[in-house]
Write a structure and sequence with these properties.
alpha+beta, Nucleotidyltransferase, domain 5, Alpha-Beta Plaits, 5-stranded mixed beta sheet, 29% strand, elongated, disordered C terminus
Length: 301
């Protein structure tokens, strides 16, 4: 079978996908014959820089610079080519990275379609100790295989070095990629987004207000979602179709990305809120599940 693989690596401002951001992404697409264990050709390779936007990520930049040595001036005003990155992801049959859980936690946040891909980890899906290597660190393995003496910690450089390592063979004559692919793929995990509803104090055109219905909701109550096509905003209703409010723009954008990848969205109440003025609100949780039977589990009026 001929598969298209993607080797991927990122450089970030730190270790937390919540507080930190990617500043560089590098990837290589290649074709591989699983029957003959032969790397056929490299299809494309790219790297992109981007400026971190959040305050927490920008604060961490000086610390991260000690590792990746990418001056802030190099990333200032830059952004990833989302069209090319997304196109490459769509072409890939699987993703492989060294310490894949780290790369996945950052990249899938920006590109939700990665949740539906098969992921393999070249650090964990290959039994390096069985083969006599005490460390699974990339630079150590590269050095042991006489493939490289230094690691630049630049995304595309790391990708190319990992490509060389995966093409190398174990004592049985199997490529390390073949070994990695015979291990179970990292299955996409169920995801969820938690947020407070917006617009809970606004009256609708028909004169109704969420304040009429919010006092009567209960924790874990199932809710309905409706996507407004003009704005991609998600509106939230009770199962009796009473309007409760809407989900903010940033979270709605993420949910739209999941819908495009045929994920199923379901929502529920997780907490009732009331402020000092007696105004009601609520926090909701939207569950994101793979292989939806319907692309948009929403309702129509």
């Amino acid at each position: 079978m001929i598969l298209t693989g993607m080797i991927l690596d990122v450089e970030t401002t730190g270790l937390s996908p919540i507080q930190d951001e990617m500043i560089e992404i590098g990837f290589l697409l290649f074709r591989y014959d699983t029957d003959t264990d032969v790397f056929l050709e490299t299809l494309e390779e790219h790297s992109y820089l981007r400026e971190p936007l959040s305050l927490s990520a920008r604060k961490n930049y000086e610390f991260a610079f000690r590792i990746h040595s990418i001056p802030f001036e190099d990333v200032k005003g830059r952004s990833f080519d989302d069209t090319k990155v997304t196109s490459a992801i769509q072409r890939a049959d699987f993703i492989i990275a060294h310490n894949a859980s780290f790369d996945r936690s950052f990249t899938a946040k920006m590109y939700p379609e990665l949740h539906s891909k098969k992921w393999y980890c070249s650090a964990r899906n290959i039994p390096w100790k069985k083969y006599g290597y005490q460390s699974a660190k990339l630079i150590s393995l590269l050095h042991s295989h006489k493939l490289a003496a230094v690691q630049t910690h630049r995304a595309l450089d790391d990708v190319k070095q990992l490509h060389l390592l995966l093409k190398s063979s174990n004592y049985e004559g199997k490529s390390y990629l073949q070994v990695a692919l015979t291990e179970p793929a990292s299955a996409p995990k169920a995801k969820s987004i938690k947020c407070s509803l917006s617009g809970v104090k606004q009256k609708r055109a028909d004169g109704t207000s969420p304040q009429t219905y919010l006092p009567h909701i209960t924790p874990n109550e199932t809710l309905l979602l409706k996507k407004e096509e003009q704005t991609d905003r998600f509106h939230v209703y009770t199962t009796d179709r009473n309007y409760l409010g809407f989900i903010g723009a940033a979270q709605s954008k993420k949910l739209t990305g999941y819908l495009k990848e045929s994920f199923q969205l379901t929502a529920k109440v997780i907490e009732k809120l009331v402020n000092e003025k007696g105004e009601h609100g609520c926090r909701v949780e939207i569950m994101i599940e793979k292989q939806a039977k319907k692309k948009e589990p929403l309702f129509n009026h």
